[in-house]
Design goal:
The protein is mainly β. The chain is built from no helices and 14 strands. A hairpin with a 2-residue loop joins strand 10 and strand 11.
Length: about 180
């Protein structure tokens, strides 16, 4: 067999990369620096959405301590993530990734006025320090909370949003949670 450089191949001599027949759709070959590599989802992403702006929303009853926002959300564009359809996103990729996420919601508080509502992001059942946000809410007007965060993630890490308020309940009308992983 002749010793031919790949860069000089033309026409019928061109071929797909090694291992492409076994590669999953939407993956790329990533070199490992040691003469080999793997087929991977380069930028996994996934989101969940709940929207009941015209309805009565979902009530999270008296969450005086952090309570999971287990809202019946619908998956949107999952690639490298799964969801339990109750507010959780789980990373299913095989390579550690740096994740950027956004959580966006509209809500009210059930009491008259001036109640603090605090949201926190949990990873694998534990609060991520410094990923909390607070606002004052009432029963007369919608409030909106948008929280961005970053985290390193490995296979089967899962993320959820929790809520707490000193008294009363929180009524959620819109909930969107999206994550995207990047090499790093």
């Amino acid at each position: 067999m002749a010793n031919v450089q790949h860069s000089s191949l033309t026409g019928a001599e061109l071929h797909e990369p090694k291992g492409v027949a076994a590669a999953s759709a939407d993956t790329v070959y990533v070199a490992d620096g040691g003469g080999s590599g793997n087929w991977e989802i380069l930028n996994p992403y996934g989101g969940i959405l709940y929207n009941d702006i015209a309805g009565s929303g979902t009530t999270i009853t008296t969450p005086s301590a952090y309570t999971i926002m287990d809202i019946a959300a619908t998956a949107t564009h999952l690639n490298g993530f799964t969801t339990n359809n109750l507010g959780r996103l789980t990373y299913t990729g095989t390579t550690d990734r740096h994740a950027h996420a956004v959580f966006d919601m509209s809500y009210k508080h059930t009491t008259g006025s001036g109640q603090d509502v605090t949201f926190g992001v949990y990873k694998n059942g534990s609060l991520l320090s410094n990923y909390e946000a607070i606002s004052t809410a009432d029963s007369n007007s919608f409030q909106r909370m948008v929280l961005h965060f970053d985290s390193m993630m490995t296979t089967n890490d899962y993320y959820e949003v929790y809520v707490k308020t000193p008294s009363g309940s929180v009524e959620v009308y819109h909930f969107y949670f999206f994550m995207m992983g990047m090499p790093g």
